[in-house]
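Researcher: Before we compare anything, I want clean individual predictions. No alignment, no superposition, just each chain on its own. First chain goes here; please echo the sequence and then give the structure tokens.
Model: Echoing the first chain and its structure:
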Amino acid sequence: MMRISHYSMVGWLLAIIGLSVLGLTGAGSEDLWHTRILAATTAVAVIALFWACRQHRLETELVRQKDATDRQNALTHERDGVTRTLTRRVFITRCGAQLKIAPASGGYALLLVDMDYLKQINDAYGHDMGDAALRHLATVARRVFPGSLIGRVGGDEFALLIECASPEAATRLAESFLIALDHTAYHAGRPLNLSASIGIAFGPGDTALFDELMQYADLALYQSKRNGRAQATLFENEMLRDQKHTRYIERELRAAILLNELELAYQPIVTAEGKLHGCEALVRWRHPSRGIIPPVDFIPIAEQSLLIDLLGEWVFRRACRDGVETDRLSIGVNFSASQLKRDDVVTMVERVLAETGMPARRIVIEITESVAMNANDGVIRRLAALRALGLRISLDDFGTGYSGFSYLRAFPIDSIKIDRSFVVKLGDSEADNVLITALASVANAMGLAIVAEGVETAEQMLLASTAGCKLLQGYYFARPQPWSDIQAMLDRGGPVRIRTTEAA
């Protein structure tokens, strides 16, 4: 059926009205009935005309609203709902097109910007605060890089394509962005203290292809995170050579943790008489094809890739499961600076202690002196919370920082471990003899237990104990060994003098 347009209908109605009017003017008095018929027809035509016009206006408005909705939907699909930056898909498409155009300023730089600790902001203050932080970062980016393409390419990750003259110029701009981001902003009366890590790739110097620029910027971003975050790193070719090894270790370590393929070895801590006092848990990785991978090769990668939390929880749980089998031994477990930066470390410890039944008083959390020296209020608060649970805190590698002793007063610790670099020189250097004696005197005066690490000879044992070190650890007594050997040592009850072939 043919659809009649509003305009055709209006034309016909006007014709009817016209004929009706003519009929009315030509009617005689004797033809009153016919006149009334024409009048009624006219009225109907007028009503229909008004109805048609009204319908036309309604349909026109609906079309207008649909067009507006379509435009809004198109905009929504192009823009991130929180930050109003480009979506990942649109950003990638526009960058690909932009890179085909010769830049007026010399080149293009792709910046990958990762907001530091967004998860912690969300956990501590809620997602509304996290969204405000993301919006603030986007606002600062628009101000520092006006006219540049800006896209949100991940939950806490943004990408920018900017024109600049050189890689050095791109680095300066990135650093100015970090400075601007560091200025405190506020949301709902709460301060927003933000930082970000940035990776930079330059084209056409590095490459003019977007996919490669993205890969190179990602490698540079990874390096920024490895170096401590809150910094900008420019891509270098060496990063490609390190990438395969790092990514391989990262992938394999994650699998080893999840598949329970790691091991713990325990090195005894003894009294000056050689009696077993405690032990330190040390993680070992026996890879199915590569054999033993030293901790120095995988722990830094775990810290850089954020696998350290997963690894740390595995080590702590295994140490608790082993240690609960006896009630006569304290076990030291190493905690990294990365673990102590997050509040959930306290929750993790509480959960594992409850799961395993391990008494908190028999766990010693070992942290390095560098962690203590660089600890912020948050780290000190978390250590105090762990200590409040009943755990003890030990300061490892003491003396390597060459710092004063003033921070020991305020720091929540129970013992210190003198670094082996001093112990191995006992007997050879009078200065080291005096230094260890002084360290031991300070520790004892503060009520702290003191452990001498790295004791390898009978002479070192004698000198360390004479200097005031009441506890000792080193190859002279025992190398790191399986938990079954520690249990046998406890059952034997005699002095510790065990040698094993396993390397430390």
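Researcher: Okay. Second chain, same rules.
Model: Second chain and its structure:
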Amino acid sequence: MAQEKRTAIQPTREQDYPEWYQQVIKAADLAENSPVRGCMVIKPWGYSLWENMQSALDKMFKATGHVNAYFPLFIPVSYLEKEAEHVEGFAKECAVVTHSRLQLGADGKLAPASPLDEPLIVRPTSETIIGEMYSRWVQSYRDLPILVNQWANVVRWEMRTRLFLRTAEFLWQEGHTAHATRAEAEEETQKMLRVYEEFAQDYMAMPVICGKKTEGEKFPGAVDTYCIEAMMQDRKALQAGTSHFLGQNFAKASGIKFLSESGSQEYAWTTSWGVSTRLIGGMVMTHSDDDGLVLPPRLAPAQVVILPVLHKEEERARVLEYCDALKAELSAQTYAGQPVRVEIDKRDLRGGEKVWSWVKKGVPVRVEVGPRDVAQDAVFVARRDDGSKKSVPRAEFAATIADTLKSIQDSLFARAKKYRDDNTVEISSKGDFYSFFTPQNAKKPEIHGGFAVAYYDGSREVEEALKNDLKVTVRCIPLEGGGKGKCIFTGKEGIKAVFAKSY
């Protein structure tokens, strides 16, 4: 009887996907739960990932004409009340500040002392406070467009949290723009959606579907919401980014008016768009395996790690000198327009322990160097994406490292896309739809389902029924490959949509 393979992560994806996800994050040392309920501490390796994401996205935003600014963390409750649909959408998630100052009570414990004249909301999103500022900045059509982005933290008081995917506090960027015409604002909304698509696919190696949200799923107060949707390895969907056309709703609520070229007073047209540290969770679930994290090279904090293999003290100096020289050679090479990021692990650990620590951290390329490799002027190379290992002449390895990293990046995208495509089905009947999303084990569902492409009539009734019956939602109306046909649930004329269970 064949012995079951022992994996670094327990349980495996098949055994318990949610717990596997948590254990991958723990093993990779990305983050941990904080003492504050629902919040997380992002550890250095995880934060480096976010910094690399932030750096790439920031360049892309600035290349499209946007600039960065910063707005207050606190929002007067009256500002949220100006836009009724918006406040209704976020009311249950708001953290509220009602007092200032602490003082010692009679029991010797600290207690709030001074009630505020008006409660303050810890920002769940910034449309209202930014709208207030834009109303001061905009007087004429000459003041438009305003193309501003903010890197910040936000708070949404979630009841059920999961590291990176859904936490009470998280990091994100939020773009907020104001325009003189509807056409300009709609163009902006689409442009930023495509920026997110490019980032997800080219940097994260995560294939996405671009689409439009239904009325029931759109951002509170928006006219239209667009999104990128990705499939995780449990076949659930992850909304990885959104771009909102806000029309004049927020401009009217905040009083963003301008004198047009014709001399009339008009309301501006606004947009907002954002991604968050949820992207890290998406990357974990897209690429990782039962041995831990797998990182796409373009975002990996270290793209190559060099592990000196030392058995005798007299070998140490020669091996370390060789590793230092190799690091210099690799760092002189460029991949994707940047110097190759290299680390040497000189920790005093057993070889196996050291190797597995980097496997679990997902470093794309692992290099082992021992006395024999030094003597042969070679390196022993392991790829994290496919597990291949081989000895390579040092000069050849250094000269081809950029090609190797590109190969890994491309292979991860191809693998993720194949997985998504293999688990996306066109469904033409209600019975087949329900069968597709019904697990065999209702008490502990196995990995099942995927993306279902089907026609539906666009009604809230159908959406609510699917949510209640199957926990399935309309992820988006795809921008490419859409069309009309008969709704598989009601028989009425319908539109093509992508359905899935989701995070």
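Researcher: What stands out in the second chain?
Model: The mean pLDDT is 96. Additionally, The two ends are 39 Å apart (CA to CA).
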